[in-house]
Specification:
The chain is of the alpha/beta class. The chain is built from 6 helices and 8 strands, in the order βαβαβαβαβαββαβ. Helix 2 links the parallel strand 2 and strand 3. Helix 1 runs parallel beside helix 6 and helix 5 crosses helix 6. The protein is globular, with a radius of gyration of 17 Å. The chain binds 5-O-phosphono-beta-D-ribofuranosylamine (GRF).
């Protein structure tokens, strides 16, 4: 049975595009909805160009009432018949109730090698710590932020002279490879972590 994937975004949606573009041919899943929490999310137009239904549930009118915001999100997900949820740069914290409802069926991509650097500013934190490598993680979502069983990780080298921006660009390129690959395996029922080593080879 074809799995129906809803993708939640807040911004440009480059990971969303990578996911949507991967779900073709004999892939076991298809995108059924791209949902943003702001009409300004640049990814909405990219989803529409690709023929994927879009919806906006603006979080602002729900200020102070996350459960009400999530009821509106859930209504859109129900309408679309989603059975897998991919968070792709979705910048809202979800309540335990919502997460429990989707637990085991909701994935997130995070731009660090979890469990290192949950939260924001991951690239600056890796550089400040003097790390020699960085990367990204796809994990199942649990109520704790940026935690949950790891489904895949890609590692890149940190190079001399890297800034948060140069490192972010190198990691993002791997996000676009890792997330589709993990989603494909996940939709097939494979939960074994996928490890991608994209570090520089020593000269
Ligand atoms: C990515 O780095 C993702 O890991 C992070 O937010 C960024 C989203 O980028 N959570 P995009 O919207 O997919 O281009």
């Amino acid at each position: 049975m074809t799995r129906r994937v809803a993708i939640l975004i807040s911004g440009g949606g480059s990971n969303m595009v990578a996911l949507v573009d991967s779900m073709t041919g004999d892939h076991p899943a298809r995108p059924c909805l791209v949902l943003a929490n702001s009409a300004d999310a640049g990814g909405l137009a990219k989803a529409a160009e690709r023929g994927v239904p879009t919806a906006v549930v603006d979080h602002r009118p729900y200020k102070g009432d996350r459960p009400a915001f999530e009821t509106a999100l859930q209504a859109e997900l129900d309408k679309a018949g989603a059975d897998i949820l991919c968070l792709a740069g979705f910048m809202r914290i979800l309540t335990e109730g919502f997460v429990r409802r989707w637990q085991g069926r909701m994935l997130n991509i995070h731009p660090s090698l979890l469990p290192k650097y949950p939260g924001l500013n991951t690239h600056a934190r890796a550089l400040d710590a003097g790390d020699t490598q960085a990367g990204c993680t796809v994990h199942k979502v649990i109520p704790d932020l940026d935690a949950g069983p790891i489904l895949g990780q890609a590692t890149v080298s940190i190079r001399p002279g890297d800034t948060p921006d140069t490192l972010a660009a190198r990691v993002l390129a791997q996000e676009h490879i890792l997330y589709p690959a993990v989603l494909h395996r996940f939709a097939m029922g494979d939960r074994a972590p996928l490890i991608i080593d994209a570090r520089d080879t020593p000269k």
